[in-house]
Amino acid sequence: MKRGTITIRNANSKSIQVSIELSEDGTVWMTKNEIASLFNVYHSSVAANLKSLFKSGGLLENEVKKECPHTLENGQKCIVEYFNLEVILALCYRMDSPICTLFRQWVAKQVSTSFKKHSQIIVQLGTATTMN
């Protein structure tokens, strides 16, 4: 499964460089550990915020999570949970780390730039975004 990638490079303490490569299904899929590493937070923080998001109904777990079977080196089988870009964005707004703050600012700048370039942005949930 091609999962896509998000790379955040911290150029300095006040700016970052972000690179996002989407998967074939138009999102990015990451594990809890990968999200924790991306935002420089503890795994437990990611897990607690995920639990809270799902419990509140802010995100529907069955729509934003994939479970894939995996075989470990010792032959033991396990299930790996992957979370999509929608979850990653929601988590960055819930967690407090310098990287999360810079990433939120980067996301806001991308949205603002899109509004400036296009006279209208129409968003329909469940479908692609159309920009005119």
Characterise this structure.
The protein has helices at residues 32-39, 43-56, 61-64, 85-94, 98-117, and strands at 5-12, 15-21, 65-71, 77-83, 121-122, 130-131. The chain has 132 residues and is an alpha+beta fold. The protein has one domain (5-131). A two-stranded antiparallel sheet has the order 1-2. It has a two-stranded antiparallel sheet with strand order 3-4. Strands 5-6 form a two-stranded antiparallel sheet.
Number of strands: 6
Radius of gyration: 16 Å
For the biggest β-sheet, the strand order reads 1-2
Derived structural class: alpha+beta
Helical run tally:
5
Task: Please summarize the sheet with the most strands.
Answer: 2 strands, antiparallel
Q: Average pLDDT across residues?
A: 88
List the helices and strands and how they pair.
Layout: E1 5-12, E2 15-21, H1 32-39, H2 43-56, H3 61-64, E3 65-71, E4 77-83, H4 85-94, H5 98-117, E5 121-122, E6 130-131
Antiparallel strand pairs: 1-2, 3-4, 5-6
Helix pairs in contact: 1-2, 2-4
In short:
With 132 residues, this protein is of the alpha+beta class. The protein has helices at residues 32-39, 43-56, 61-64, 85-94, 98-117; strands at residues 5-12, 15-21, 65-71, 77-83, 121-122, 130-131. A hairpin with a 2-residue loop joins strand 1 (5-12) and strand 2.
